[in-house]
Amino acid sequence: MVDSVKKPTFEEIRPGVKTPAKDTILTPRFYTTDFEEMSQMDISANEDELRAILEEFRVDYNRHHFVRDEEFEQSWDKISGEERRLFIEFLERSCTAEFSGFLLYKELGRRLKDKSPVLAECFTLMSRDEARHAGFLNKAMSDFNLQLDLGFLTKSKKYTFFKPKFIFYATYLSEKIGYWRYITIYRHLEKHPEDRIYPIFRFFENWCQDENRHGDFFDAIMQAQPQNLNDWKAKLWCRFFLLSVFATMYLNDLQRSGFYASIGLDAREYDIEVIEKTNETASRVFPVMLDVNDPEFYNRLDTCVENNVKLTQIAESNAPGVVKFFQKLPLYVSIGWQFLRLYLMKPIDVASQVPAVR
Q1: Residue 266 backbone dihedrals phi, psi, to 5 degrees
Q2: pLDDT-based confidence at 13, cuts 50/70/90?
Q3: Whole-number CA gyration radius for the chain
Q4: How many CA atoms within 13 Å lie on the side-chain side of 129?
Q5: pLDDT in tens, 319-354
Q6: Collapsing DSSP states into helix, strand and coil, what is residue 349?
């Protein structure tokens, strides 16, 4: 008698097609923006750098990179139970985030084609990269007998509107933190190949260079729009987006620490390293950094993580809805208070730092 492998069950739209994860404050978002305002941007102050980045995009360094090899052609039943569920969630979240970038960049490329051809081509070529990433991740999900219907996702997902300058803040940080996430995992598994449970991690070194180039593009756009970086409002907004991106990653990853443990990483230590590297990288363009070396920063995030665990337990309980509401309310208030205190922590003014920081 052969022991059956315990496999987690997921809701499916139809056989083999996973129902997308429900939208929450922590799930990857789809974005839209004011395309007319974007098309009227003056990039002349930094056009030479943007054209140089465009030439890099045209070279397409990774055009032959995302090709599955024979290592994928095997049964993956050895990844089972909770480890399998968490790994599928990792693939889904990553695929959704990459596909979100593809949709936004593709639409920007289409809308800007006539009025800003340099930006339009850059966005179109970045959408090419994101499509490859999303497709590669979705194909990986099929090794676990599931996939996402990306067409259904396009129509069913809620879209968040951001003005162009907020799109720049958010996507710059998304691309740069993506770089540090991928390269940190890659370097760890390069030293500890015994922890590489699935071959997709071998692709992360080249993959993260796409993220890095995309981040450099948004860096160059922001440098061409200095009014979005050099006043007191910019400092407040940069603090907000830094905190939002860092906190979202931290809460998500510690909630799924079992996935990181399966590849030999401590989720908290991993996130701290990624946050510190991204914070330092962002200081090359943002006017402020968060003081992530202050112990208060992670202590307050840890309180949010604890509250989030309790919220999940309440949601999964059999208590009546009204009881759940009153059980959750003080936890939501606590999380809101922690975020407010985190936001009000004194940031580091980049201009006051030694030149080496920039």
Answers
A1: -90, 120
A2: confident
A3: 21
A4: 26
A5: 898 999 999 999 999 999 999 999 999 999 987 664
A6: strand
What are the tokens at 83? Answer: 């480890």
Confidence of residue 3 (pLDDT cuts 50, 70, 90): very low
**Rounded distance between C-alpha atoms, residue 273 and residue 144, angstroms:** 30
For the chain, percent of residues with pLDDT exceeding 90: 83
- What's the average model confidence in pLDDT over 18-37? 87
Q: How far apart are CA 245 and CA 243, in angstroms?
A: 6
pLDDT at 114: 86
Among left, alpha and beta (phi > 0; psi -120 to 50; other), residue 298 is alpha
Report the C-alpha gap between 351 and 92 in whole angstroms. Answer: 40
Residue from 334, 188, 174 nearest 269 by CA: 188
What is the spatial distance between Cα 283 and Cα 48, in angstroms, rounded to a whole number? 22
CB < 8 Å & 24+ apart, contacts of 268-275: 268/298, 270/184, 270/185, 272/298, 273/180, 273/184, 274/177, 274/180, 274/181, 274/184, 274/249, 275/246, 275/249, 275/250
Residues contacting 142, CB < 8 A, separation 6+: 16
